[in-house]
Amino acid sequence: MKDRKELLSTLLSRLLVLVSSFGLVLISSILLGAEGRGNLSLTITDAALVAIFSNILSGSSAMFYLNKLSEGKVFYTAFLWILVCSSIGGGLLSLIHSTPFLLLFLLSVALSFHALVFNQLFASQRFVKGNVLTILVQVTFFLTLLSFWIFDFSLHWEMYFVLQILIWFTVSLIFLTPSKIDVVSFSELKAIFTYGFKNELSFFFQFLSYRTSYFFVFYYLGLSSLGVFGVMVIIAESVWIISKSFSSVAFAKQLQDEDISVSIQRINYYLNLSFLLSFFALLILLLIPENWYNLIFTREFLGLKEILWVVSPGILAMSGSTVIGHFFAAHKQQRILIYKSLVGVLVTLILTPVMLNFYGIWGAALAMSISYLVSSFILFGAYYATIKRKVFI
Fold this sequence. Notes:
By secondary structure, this protein is an all-alpha fold. The protein has helices at residues 4-58, 60-65, 71-97, 101-123, 127-150, 157-175, 186-221, 223-237, 240-254, 260-287, 290-297, 304-330, 335-359, 361-389. Helix 1 (4-58) crosses helix 6.
């Protein structure tokens, strides 16, 4: 397909990000220990929750409308929305988890601002620049933490986020394309908000499906167990770097497709390639000897390999359904995305506490895997029904 250049550059950039992300997990685990990793997991989860609401105007909705409306209207409206959501969300969550408000506010703004700049680049088909942005943010952060480790500097988990915030803002500003400030009309704002709300409602339920188990593990087993569980999730979800790479390109490309048959052909190609590469990536993770994981992450993180085996089926299923999800989003068919995500979170809420009581930490992984499988099968069913009829159900 003609998309190979964009796919290859995006995939290679995400693989570099994956390597640096693994390095970040390794170094932060050494510097902070299991309890420190637990604090990181909680704070990152809080920031990701705030970002869901920020993304109503700054996420895929921004990419969708940046070329349909004035770029200045979409970009600056989205940035103001980010500030509002980060203020409200950061304030509420800082009360719940006692995380410093300013830290959570700045982290949420930095996360969403970086995503907005990335979406601006992809919406204008500047895939290489978007990929370089992603690489620089992650690699710069990795090298910064590496210097802390090499020179034996002490690192508190709050300082970890201060460094991350500074790097995200600085690098994202370098790639920011200035736009003429323009005022969005009410009808335009309504259209952007409606599209974004439907998308983020699906992501909100998906987020709960992904991360509700964190809070259950924290409540039932404590902060150190959450640190172990969080590292396992990061390792397992690293496989998604492949499907997310393909999905980013697929979404941007489909916004230019006029014929649904072209979109289906594109998605089928991406889906098969994503599933195959994800399978081999997951297989490599599973074939790594358990004592290697213990050697890398220290004995505080025992049991990672066992948990990885349990969650693998769900991780692989999501590698395919992520690509399909962007097909429906590009065609403004978010209803099925909301439904599958809602079912996924209900499965998580029902099974996780039960599985935790019976099987401990790997019971949470089993509940997570089942949730992923159920929601993925719903999406696969809807997609194949669409292929058969070439109309949306």
